[in-house]
Give the backbone structure.
Amino acid sequence: MAGSDDSMLDKAEGFARRMLERLGAKVDSKLRLGPREISEITSRIEHLIESSLKEDKTGAKRIAPNRFRVHFTYEDSAELDRKYLQALAQELKATIYEYINNRRYETIAPIEVEAGRDVFAKSIVVKAAFEESFNASQQGGAGGTVAEQSAKQGLLTILLQSAEGPSYRIELKAGGAPACIGRAAGTALRIEDSSISRLHCSLALRSNGEIVVSDLGSSNGTYINEEMLGPNEARPLRQGDMIGVGDVRFTISEIS
């Protein structure tokens, strides 16, 4: 058990270090959120994922929750500004994605993480739910499918099917920041493969509804239907297209 605890703490220390790198030297000893607190949060999230799994079409329990909330007490969050909470949510999102992906679980919609404050909480609150649970409360019970709600909000979800079997979802917002694919922590799709650069390529949804892919100066190139993208090229994507990221291949099996 000691080895397991040490491994979890090592991961948490790496997590905390990335937070410091994101926010710079302004983050100091005033913050109460250290490696052990982060280790506790990630451990609770992993437990929630395992205890909340739903059955897929084959009856196997592998559908994981996709919405997560981490709320701190007023005392714990007194020194945590909005920038820190946003960075924390991004790091947690990358960690959750890696956990779900490594176990070949799936989600019904893209993973989202909310980090905030709860002035009435006596301890850190960690919750997990499936998208419908959050939609019902956030939209006053408004009906409609996930795709219909996404379309109304200028959102699209791309399902990438890898040649090896696993599938991945990436959510794009019209006119929003591009979603990056690469080996770096915090990317929308993180892939540990030596042929893939830390920031390899990006997907973006233009305001006119067009989805485009661009290479980010990768070492081994980005390909669409086996044709390499040129420098500074943004090429439109359609359902059925094949994306080559280094030596890894994906097919766009669904756009919704």
Summary: Confidence is low (pLDDT under 50) at residues 23-31, 133-152.
